[in-house]
Please model this.
Amino acid sequence: MDAISIICIAFGLAMDAFAVSVTSGVAIKHLRVKHALTIATCFGSFQAFMPFMGWLAGLSLRDFISGVDHWIAFGLLSAIGCKMIYESCKVESIKREINPLNCFVLLILSVATSIDALAVGISLSFLKISIAIPAIIIGIVAFLLTLLGVFIGNRFGHFFENKIEIVGGLILIGIGTKILIEHLA
Model:
């Protein structure tokens, strides 16, 4: 897998974190740089850690599914992308005030936004790709976009939130399709 594909996957995965960080920025009334750094560090760390965990899990399955690994990678990335698009289009009827700086809330948000990265890690193990560099890139991109998202959310509110998740979903579907076409060709 080339560097551009890894960077696109990182941006696709980071769109969930970006959307949640925009919402977090809205929820924080008196935003300080340390607040944004705390959220970005947690999100970026989990986004880097989860692909590694998925990759390890995928290694144990890789030999059993080597003939259909490209189909599984396509399916996982497409399912994640479709899920992101679907969730971005849902109307939330219940709006609750949350404190994204609460340790428990921050942990839940970090895990929730990085579950997709776990599935990507599984896909990368099926494709026999080393996980170190992709995990680092995914973590750095998530950190930077989360940091940016908190500030944007604090300034501009929810304007970007749903649109960003749609873009992220489309990117992941595109990468999955690219993997499938490369293996079928």
Notes: The chain has a mean pLDDT of 84. Residues 3-88+99-184 form one domain. The first helix runs from residue 3 to 27.
